[in-house]
Structure formats: C-alpha cells, structure tokens
Amino acid sequence: MSIQSNAASVVFDNVSKIYGTDIVAVDQVSFSIEAGTLVTLLGPSGCGKTTTLRMIAGLEMTNGGRIIIGDDDVTTLPATDRDVSMVFQSYALFPHMTVGENVAYGLTVGNTDKDEVHSKAMDGLKLVGLDGYSERLPSELSGGQQQRVAVARALVLEPQVLLFDEPLSNLDAKLRRKVREEIRDIQQNLGLTVVYVTHDQEEALAISDRIIVMKNAVIAQEGSPRDLYEAPVDYFVADFIGNANLLETEITSITNGDASVRIGSLELMLPSRGMSAGVAHVAIRPESVMLSRDMASSGLDGLIAKATYLGSHMEYTVTTQMGELFVIDKDVISPMAEKISVKINLSDRGVTLVST
Amino acid sequence: MNRTVLLWLTIGLVSFLILPWYVIEDGFWGLEWLVDGYPLDPDYGPAWSQIMTGGKVWLSPIPLFLLLPFATWGRPKTDPLYSRILLISGMGGLGYILLQAFTIGIAGWEFLVLESLFDPIDRQYGMGYGGLLVSAAFLFMITQGVAARGVINGDVFVVSSIGLISAIVVMFIFFPVSRILISALQDNEGLYSVVAFTSKISHYKIWGLGCLTSNVGCGAAWNSLFLAITVGLTTTALGLVFALLATRSGFKHRKLLRALTVLPIITPPFVIGLSLILLFGVSGVVTQFVGDLIGVTPGRWLYGMPGILLAQLLAFTPIAFLVMIGVVEGISPSMEEAAQTLRADRWRTFTTVSLPLMRPGLANAFLLGFIESMADFGNPLVLGGDYDVLSTEIFFAIVGAQNDQGMAGVLALVLLGFTLSAFFIQRRWLGKKSYTTVTGKGDSGFHSALPNRLKWPIYGIAGSWTAFTIVIYCMIMFGGFVEVWGLDHSLTFKHYITAFSVDFGEHGILWEGSAWNSFWTTITIATIAAPLTAGLGLLTAYVLVRQKFRGHDIFEFGTMLSFAIPGTIIGVSYILAFNVPPIELTGTGAILVLCFIFRNMPVGVRAGVAAMSQLDKSLDEASLTLGANSFYTFRKVVLPLLRPAILAALVYSFVRAMTAISAVIFLVSAEYDMATSYIIGRVENNDYGLAIAYCSILILVMLSAVSIFQFLVGDRRLGRRSQSPAKSPAQQSPPNTEEKFA
Amino acid sequence: MKIYKLMLTTAIGVVVAMGFGTGPAAAKGKLNYYCSAQEDWCQLMAKGFEKETGIKVNMSRKSSGETFAQIKAESRNPKGDVWWGGTGDPHLQAAEEGLTEPYVTPIRGELNGWAISQAKSADDKTIGIYSGALGYGYNADVLKQNNLPVPACWKDLLKPVYKGHVQMANPNSSGTAYTTLATIVQLFGEEEGFEFMKGLHKNINQYTKSGSAPIKAAARGENTIGIVFLHDAVKQAVKGFPIVAVAPCEGTGYEIGSMSIIKGSRNMEEAKKFYDFALRADIQSRALEVKAFQVPSNKAAKTSPKAPKLADIKLIDYDFKKYGSSSERKRLLKKWDDEVKSLAK
Q1: Within this chain, do residues C137 and C285 fall inside the same structural domain, yes or no?
Q2: Are A267 and A204 in a shared domain?
Q3: Helix (H, G, I), strand (E, B), or coil: what is residue B599?
Q4: A167 contacts on B by Cβ (under 8 Å)
Q5: What are the pLDDT digits (tens) for B377-400?
Q6: Nearest in space to C254 (alpha carbons), one of C270, C225, C231
Q7: Helix (H, G, I), strand (E, B) or coil at A196
C-alpha cells in the first residue's frame, strides 16, 4: 500500500474568530492534538466546533492567536497552502467527474506524472473498498459509497491532518455505525491525525482518542471518552454527554477531598472535585440508579410513573421528592409495573458532583 | 520573489520599455508602427523614448514606481513590508498615471487653473498598449499587496478578480456616466455654469405641460414617463394574462406561446414600427380597407403616443410573460389548495392568495417594461410624430442641428433619474417580505383552474394579441420579397440580392451585397462580446456568491447598475468619455464590444448567481483543501458545473449584440457599422424592402443560434451526468431574460 | 465545454484576422479623409481614389459639426488631411478661424460660378463641390385623391386646404429645417417670415426629427407635401414613388456642400491630389451611382434628368456668413420655439 501517513500535531494557541464586529464564534481557544490520534470536537450547534475545524483547514482565518501544524505556524496560510484535507458533511464530490477523477483531483494539482496519480488514486479506492468503481459517477453510488469516496479523496494526499465535518449525518443509523468503524480502522492502521466534528455524543464516545467539548465559543472540557462520561466537569458536559439526572444537592462537609452530600434522605460520600460546602449539583447516570421493590430497605422513596420496554433494557420514569429520575434497568425479565412504590439507591460509579 | 508579482512586473517593464505608450491611430491591432519610425517616432514611441525625445517629461516618475516591487526580493509574504511596498508601488503608480492622464490632454493642460499656474505643456493622446498594460501591472501590484495583508484569506485570485472587475466597472460604467453629469453642468463653451444647467433642466421642452391645457405637446420628460408607466402596467397585465393562460387553463398550445416569446428578443428594432405603418398608416392596408368600407379614412392616429404604445406593447409583452410565468408556476399549489379548503371560492383564492404572491413578478415585469420603454429608440423614431420622448431627444441633441452635448447630458440625466428611481422604488416596494413559495419539500397538487369570470376575457385578449402578432410577422417576411412596399407588390428577390449577393471571382468568394460589411462586423462583434460578457458575468457572480468582503453590497450594486441605465445613455456617455484621452475609443470596434459587455453583463451575473447559489459551497472548499488554488477551483469545478448558465449568458449576449440599437447608434463608425444601424440607415432612405429583408435574415440567424444553443443545453439535461443528486445545476432550466430582473 | 472553447477560438481567430486585415499599408502614401456626406457617397469617393492612385485612405465619417469640432481640437497637431462634404457653414467657419489651407485647383475653370464665389469669399480655403436648393415635394397620387390643387410657391402652402398635409423637420434637430427657416426669413424679411412660419404651423401635421423624413413619408403616402432639399425629393421620384419636386416661385435658399484641406496636413501632396480628383467631372458624375442628386460643381458633370437644374431655380442671395453664425442661429431657433412651435394648431 503506497499511502503513507504524514501525521502531525495541531496546536491552537489562544485562537479567536469573530464574525462581523461582535459575533464571537471562537473565543481564545487553546488545545493541542497529538500526532496520530483521533480527536473529536463535540458540542451543540453554534458552539464553534465547525469554525474551529475550518480554521484548521484554512477555510476561515483567525482574528487572533496562532495555529501550528507540525512544526509550522500556518496561521496566515490559506487552505490551498496547508497540508490538510477535509471530508465534508455533504461529501462535496464533484458531480461532473468520475469517482476516479474525484479521488485523483488533489493529486493532479501540481503533479504531472499521470501514472503515479492513477496508481495512487487506485490505491486510495482500494483502501476504502471501492476498487472497480473508478469509472462510475458519484451519482451512481449509494450514500455510504459516496462517503467512502470522499474519504479516499482526502486520504490519497497523505495530509498532515485529516478533518471530518459531521461526515456521517447523512447516513442511516446502521450504516453510520459501520462507516465510523471503518474510519477508525483506517485512522489507526495508518496512524493518521484526525480531527472529527460531530454533535452526536455517542459517535464521539465510540470513535475518539480524546474529545474536546465546546460550548458558547469556548472549550467546556477536554479528555478521554471515559473521563468525560464519568467525570464531567460541569452541568453542561454532564447533560450533553450521555443521559444524566441532574439534581440540586447540598454539600454538608468536606474532608480530605471527599464531600459528604445529602440527596433527600440519602447521604453519599463523593470526590469533592474542588468544591466547597453549600448548594451544588450532582449528576447521576440513569444506569447508576438502583430500584428495589423491597420497601423495607433503605433509600429514597419513589413511585414508578412510567415504564417502557425497549427489548434490551427497561426505561423508567420515577417520581421522587427530588423531582423525576430517569432510570435504565437491565432487568427485562421481571420488570416493574407502573404506579408501584420503590426504594432508590445509587451505585458507586456514575454519580458525580458537577459545578453549575 | 513571488511568481505572480514577477510576472506583472515584467509585463509592466516590457510595456514601458518596448510597447508604444500612446494609442495608435491605425487601430488597436495594426502593426504598422513596427516598421514606421519605431521607436523614436513620437506617435509610436514607448514611454522611455517619449520622455527622452518626445518631450513628455511628466512620464518620468512612472519607472520609479515600476522598479519599487524589486524591493520585495527575498521577503516572505508575511513580512508587513512586503505588502506595503507593493501597495505603494501600485497605488502610487496607478494614481500618478491617472493624474497625468486627466490633467494633460489633447490640448496640453486640461484645466484653466493649471494653465495659469504653469508654463504651457505639450499635449498627449490616449493611452495605448503601453499605458494600459503598465496601468494593469500597477493594478495587480495593488491586489497582490492587499492579498498579502490577508484580506479574503490572502487569496490572490479572488482579490485580483475583485480589483479587476471593480476597475473596469468604474472605467466603463461609472466614469462614462459621470461624464454625463459633467457635460450637463457645462455650457456650450465648456465652462461650468449653474445658470446654463438650471435653464436647461427646467426647460419647457422637458417639463412643459402644454398638452393639458391646449393641443401643444407636453415636455419630453412627461411624455416618456407617461408612456413608460402605461407600457409597464399594460405589458405586466398582458404578461400575467399569458402566464395564467399557459399554466392555469387547459390551453393546449403552450409551445406556441413559448415560441412567440422568443420573437421579440430576436427581432431587430423598427421592424414592428414599420409593419404597423404599413398596416395602419395613412396609406396602410387596414386604413385603406376601413376607408373603403365606411367611407371615412382614419387619419394620422398612428403617429404619436398610440403608435409607440402599440409597437412597444407588441415588443415587450412577451418579455413580461417570461418574467410572470416563472412566478406563476412557482406558486405552490398547496397554498391555493389550502385557501380552497378554507372555503374560499376560486375568485377569492385568486385575489387573496395567488395575486399577492405574484407581487415580485409583477414588480419585476413592471420595472422591465418601464425601463425598456424609457430606453426604446427605434419605435419612437419611426412612429413618434410630434410626441417627443427623452431617448430620441437625446439622440437629436447630439446629432441634430443643435449639436448641444450639454442638452443631451441634461436629458440623459432626467432619463437616468427616472429609471434609477424606478429601480429603487421597486426594491423598496418588495422590501424584505418573504415571497418564497417554493420550499425544499416536495409540493404535490394542482394549480387551481381559472375562475370563469377571468377565463373568457383572458382567452379573448390572448387570442387577438396572438393573431395580431402573427399577422405582423407574416407581413415582415412578405415585405422582403416585394418590389416597393405599398406601391408595387410584384414579387422579387431584389432586396436579398442587393443586400446579400455573393460572387465567385478568381480570388475566391466576393461578398458583393451591400449588407455583408455590417453583417460580418455584427457577427464578429457579437461573437467577441458574448464569451467576454459571459466570462465576466460569471466571474462576478462567483465573487458575489462565494466571497465575503467589505464593500460586497456596493460591488453588487455597481455590477448591476448598468441594467437600470438605458442604452441611449450608455451610448451618449461612451461618446463623451471615450472621444478624448486618456482612453480614446470612438470609431473603433472595441467600443462596441465594450458597450455590449457592460450592457449585458447583469444578465451574465444574474444567471451565474442563480446557478451558483445552487452549487454547494463545500464543493469549492473541498477543492481548496485538496490543494487546488481558487483559480484552479474556478476553472475545474465551478465553471464546468455552470455550463447551462454559461450557455444562457452566451446566447443572450450574442442575440442582444445583434439587435441592440439605442447605444449602438452613437458608437458605430464607417469601419465598424452594425446591422441595426445599417438597417436604420436603410429605413431613413425609404428602402423598406432592403431593411426588412435584412431583418428577416437576422431573425433567421438568431433563431438558428438560439436553437443550436437550446439544443445543446437540452441535450445536456438528458445526459447521464445530470442525474447526480448533488445539486447538479444541469437540472435547472436555462436562465432566460427573467433572471435579469430577479 | 466544447462549444465554449469553439466560440472562444473563433473569437480569437476573428480578432487576429481583423488585426492582420489592417496590416502594413502600401508605400504609396496615405490620406486621412474626413467625410461629412452620406455614408455610401463617402465610401464611393474613398474607394475610387484608393483604386485610382493606390494611396491608402483612412476614412472617418462624422457630421459637419462634429468634424469641425474635431479639426479645431486637433489644430495644434492635425491628424486629418482633407475634409470633404457637408454643408458650407462650418467649412466657412474653419476658413475664418484659419484651420484650413488655401489651395487653387488647376481645374477651377471647369466649375460653376457659385462654387468659385464660395471659394473666393473664403480666400480659397474652401470650395463648393455640390449644391442643393431648398424646396418641397408632393405626392401626386395623394394630392389627387384628396382633390388638392398643385402648389407652386411658398405661399401656396399657407392655404387652408393643405391643413394637415404639410410636413417639415424641426429646425432644432435638422439642418435642412434650419435652412428653411433662414431662407424664409431672408426671402420675406424677419417679421413677415415669422408670420409665414406661424401660418405654415397651422397646416403642419408633424415636425419630424430628421431633415429628409417629410419627403419619405410623402413617398409612402403617409404625408402629402414635404419641405426638403430638392435633391432628396428627386431621389424618391427616381425610386419610383409618385413624388414631384417643386422649386417655389418666390425663390429659395440653398446649401453648398464644400471641401477644404486641413492646415498643417501631414500628407499635403495626397490631400491636393484628392482635392483635384474630387472636382473632376467624371468623379462628380458618379454621385448618381449612390443616388445623390445634388447639383455638381463641375459644369461638365452629369446630372439626373429628373433633378432640377439649378439654373432654372430662382435662388436668393443666401447670406451664409450671417445665418451660419452660432448667435444668429440660436436667436432664430429660440424665436421659432417661442413664437411658432408653442402655438396651438
């Protein structure tokens, strides 16, 4: 296989982007991405993740700060002059060119050796499993195939960084899972640096080495998928990544970094994460809530308001004095009926204090 | 050193050192200068010899600016000095060239103030290859400098395109039109005089209201305004009638309607006026027939307002139809169906839902009819009688016995005032309200049929109009084959032979017919102008749609402005602006080409904008991130996908170049005569047969051009590639005239 | 894309072809020829001269007013050599301002008296090449149809029977009509002249823009009587229209088409060659080929049998100097606008 990796690191140093005079899309953001890793920019729409990606590509210019790719400061370089390729949400395949021509497009710019271009393009197609399709037009391919052509087109240039802008949003759910696994495989096999934008937290968790969560033009949290899920720093991240029951609570005291927290009648010891006594929020993952029919046991009192059968698990809505809780229970063999009272306890994992 | 900078630097230096600085009398393409005293002859010398031996010492600072960019040697683009050096060189050089060009003219100092301050100075002619290319080099130094400062992502191609388009729009639209303003302010001796201006602009020939109280004619401004409003309203109404007929009734012959709409676009001017005279004139067929029938001969009613109105209605209604049909078809049937399920009857649905939704179409159609009528020159000339309108008054102020350019300027100003006001009022009236009726979601359902109380009047109006049009065009075809119209109706090929005879001599084909000269010139000029118009229009559209930059709106306004400027004004302003240095163009073929480019550019821009808005922007971005620069992207990705828009712009500008008259009449010369001005000469000479024969040939030529192009576009649409789901523009219908007004 | 390329290639090809079309001239010299007559006549003269002498002619056709302005603008470095055609006024004005060169042709003896006297009045700086008398033409068929009497004099046109049957051009836009106005003023005196114009105004059905339009309308039967130069009327008659030209009995004005050599001409020899050429009888006879029925200045030149003989027409002593001056022109036009045009019909 002739396609190599030239993976390089990406560093954002206090980068800002302002549209017009006062619309701040990205506000003094700094991060660094190691070479050969897949990093996801995750966040709700309008958080600045796509703008960040486009600044890496050179499609948008910064209003301050520096962008460094590998060893080079590329802050003022236009897209054309950066060694970065991008896969677009709409794939952006050129409809007037065949699949082969599309993949070869970037190679033909400034390259006169037709044989080399051709063989490299063929290698690219092979890599994504589309050899034999090179004479087709994009319109004659399925959505998933088009997506793979777009990936091949970006790959064959052996870019320092490969960018994906919500590449799976036009695919149906099953295909989405398949293609994202392929992308991850290629990335890991070739050791590429990939920056990946999505608003789908499940996709982000599945594919990433690291995730950068953005909110209102700044980074909300950065870390591995596990970090983010299990230790969200704040209300926003906890709510955005996975499902979480966010309850108001009171920290009664702190000893040796452990906070004692009161949730209704429950007393818990949780890592304080630098918080001081007083009112705080606690994030409880739905699978960390344990329901018991045994009303004699300890725990919070609750009433099953709604029970939904989902095949692999049950989902319950439980009314408590703290408000409604969303609960996931693996037990589908003897599910609880609606309108019965339960006792509620929390497991050790999946319960964290978060700042507001 | 940057390659592009080096390229333009070389061009600038070569032009300065080798090419003749001033315009060459023998024509732009003449090569005589090479063997005739070059380089020391003052007529042909390059700039350096003009300075050394020609006494044009004021050119000597130019090389300083030209050498300055060498200071960027070895500096990276990111060095602030790099862009500063280029900006100083470019702005200084270009600014200095303009300064000397406008202050030193054909008689030495151009301004009396300077004459009194300095010694008399030698004179100079317009800029030639040398001057123009050196100016271009400076222009691109500026754009390189601007791009190096990171404007528009530092994209040299885009910055250069904006710079180039702005420069030529200023040079060929704003500069000439401002000359009208200036000449309007001057008295006959060329002195600025407010008194002369106010007495001219308030002249009763423009604003007189005698027609209200007695049977003296009203001022030309009122006449034009009244005519234009009437034509605008009537053509809009008729256009609506036809559009409804085509979409809302069981009418079977829509293709015939479509065909009829092509006719006025390819009909040379005068033809309709002439056939009206032959039908309804004092000695016309219909007049005589009616006279025999009822014993009273109708008088000279045709000459004046009724005649012009009739001719303009015949000519412009189909264009209004083209605008209206797009809008009428675009109204989502579900809105009408919704109204009907809400218990509105058909009439109520039509008046409360359909009609209000057509507002943009109505406004566009009205504006179009208004401006076309204001600018129309041929019909008032032939049928005007004593009904003076601005367009003909402007013409005769210049060529007539008065030879009063100032008056022409004032009249042009009034005309420009009317059309620009209409342009702005229309934009305001439409405002920001949404009239979007086509959504991304598929619409099903049918347009509701016409209410009965509309149906029969519409059939009646459309039927008689169609019959009338067919009679007129039959007359035109027939008129070319009779000896002398109205006198001797024996059939003959005489006129075709006179105009288009061909002889085979020993040196090949001899084009003996009297029309060949203007015919080939017209074809040549139209052929040169068409691709340039399309190219410039699409480049402008690309910049407008794809790039965001400061001054975007002004840029858009500037490129669309020429749409609101009647051809008469373009013609007059080109004469005023390009008859004297620094740009001497009158009497050349180039001035005609330029005139057509800037007259028809808005169509290319609109077609391009419409097509480009349907192209996903990520296609361009994909190309950029794949390492292609924006020029490569424009060439390889954008242009191929705009093929239908390109073809439409090509056809339109080709056809318009063959039928335009209002601007052309001022700009033709003996060497570069155009078909339309040749025809007007024949009409003036009473050679109706020849004129009509020529028109018929032109109609055939254009008809075949249009059908060839339509065939090509249609063919593309069926092609395999057009089935792409990725918003292939090939699926959209070719933009026609309506785009111009969208 | 192919058609686009094809068009582009064609365009480039044509441009290149045009470029080479105007390639190097023959070494026989060249002549910059400013022409102010009708287009085909200008062409005829240029091509005829080119053919006979091998001298390359660069022709530029502009109206006499525009040409005058151009020569004046170029006076410090003249670009033109000879100026042929157009009404006499601007030629005389150019002579007066010293923009043209005196020259006496060897064949002056062959010329009509009016041509020579015009030259003499300008110190030989210009000369008459043709002349046209003013008058009117009527459509005999239409006249008969409407049972109208045949007119013969200016004053006949004032008769109420002709109401709505007479057409003339607007003197503001047409030199012909201005000559008419000036002629009437000279013929009847200013006061009576304007009374005449007012009376005529009542019978006028339309003031046209262009000078010869009235007779063309008459030829088509769209009008009955048109006040024009007689040669224009003859032209229509020759074409087969039932037009009869009338030289009014009271006498009439005329124009003298003139020719001048531009002072400081760079091709003086060629200019003089052209000057002599243009006055020759055989050359002036060729005007008939382009249906120019003006009276030629060479006595031996052929005229159309249908053209009125200048000798048969009673010509007034037209004061070209006075009525050609800009101030007098403006004054008369304003007076006509205020007193005649604004009258109700």
Answers
A1: no
A2: no
A3: helix
A4: none
A5: 888 888 888 888 998 888 777 766
A6: C231
A7: strand
Q: How many domains does chain C have?
A: 2
Which amino acid is residue B133, in one-letter code? L
- Among left, alpha and beta (phi > 0; psi -120 to 50; other), residue C223 is beta
What ipTM, to 2 d.p.? 0.83
Q: Which one of C2, C84, C173, C333 would you mutate to disrupt binding with B, by most B Cβ within 10 Å of its Cβ?
A: C173
Domain of residue A301: give its range.
Answer: 243-354
> Would you put residue A65 in left (φ > 0), alpha (ψ -120 to 50) or beta?
left
Same domain, residue pair C46 and C111? yes
Do residue A305 and residue A220 come from a single domain? Answer: no
Residues C198 and C289 in one domain: no
Give how far the C-alpha of residue C247 lies from the chain's centroid of Cα atoms, to the nearest Å: 17
> What are B203's two structure tokens?
């002249």
Contact B29 C206 (CB under 8 A): no
Interface with chain B: mutation pick from A61, A89, A96, highest number of B CBs within 10 Å: A96
pLDDT at B720 over 50: no
C56 and C163 share a domain?
Answer: no
Q: What is the dihedral of CA B641, B645, B646, B649, to 10 degrees?
A: -170
- Alpha carbon distance B616, A253 (integer Å): 58
User: Tens of pLDDT along B532-554?
Assistant: 998 898 899 888 888 888 888 78
Are residues C255 and C160 in contact, defined by beta-carbon separation less than 8 angstroms?
A: no
Mean pLDDT of A53-82: 89
CATH number at residue A56: 3.40.50.300
Question: What is the model's pTM?
Answer: 0.79
Distance CA B535, CA B605 (A): 9
Say if residue A213 is in the same domain as residue A261: no
Q: Say whether C60 and B283 touch across the interface (CB within 8 A).
A: no
> Which pLDDT belongs to residue B289?
83
Residues C36 and C182 in one domain: no
Same domain, C121 and C154: no
A interface test, pick of B146, B617, B619, B626 with most A CB neighbours within 10 Å: B626
Q: Which chains touch B (3 or more CB pairs under 8 A)?
A: A, C
pLDDT for position B695? 87
Domain that holds residue C220: 133-254+321-341
Looking at A198, A230, A262, the residue that finishes a domain is: A230
User: Which residues pair with residue B393 across a beta bridge?
Assistant: none
pLDDT tens-place string over residues C68-87: 777 876 776 677 899 998 88
Distance CA B9, CA B66 (A): 7
C325 touching B (Cβ < 8 Å)? no
Contact B626 A91 (CB under 8 A): no
Quick one: what percent of chain A has pLDDT higher than 70?
99
Q: Does the structure show a pLDDT above 80 at B723? A: no
Number of domains making up chain A: 2
Tens of pLDDT, residues C155-200: 999 999 999 899 998 888 777 888 899 999 999 999 999 999 999 9
Are A40 and A73 in the same domain? yes
Residues A223 and A307 both lie in one domain = no
Task: Read off the pLDDT of residues B211-229 as tens digits, 9 standing for 90 and up.
Answer: 777 767 788 899 999 999 9
- Test A137 with B720 for CB contact under 8 angstroms: yes
The pLDDT, as a whole number, for residue B635 is 86
Mean pLDDT along residues A243-259:
86
Taking CB atoms within 8 Å and a gap of at least 24, the contacts of A78-82 are A78/B153, A78/B154, A78/B155, A78/B624, A79/B153, A79/B621, A79/B624, A79/B625, A80/B624, A80/B627, A80/B628, A80/B629, A80/B630, A82/A57, A82/A58, A82/B625
B627–A157 C-beta distance less than 8 A: yes
Can you give the pLDDT at residue B443? 45
> Considering only residues 24 to 53 of chain B, which have any Cβ-Cβ distance to chain C shorter than 8 Å?
25-32, 35
Does the beta-carbon distance from B625 to A79 stay under 8 Å?
yes
Are C223 and C325 members of one domain?
Answer: yes
The CATH number assigned to the domain holding A290 equals 2.40.50.140
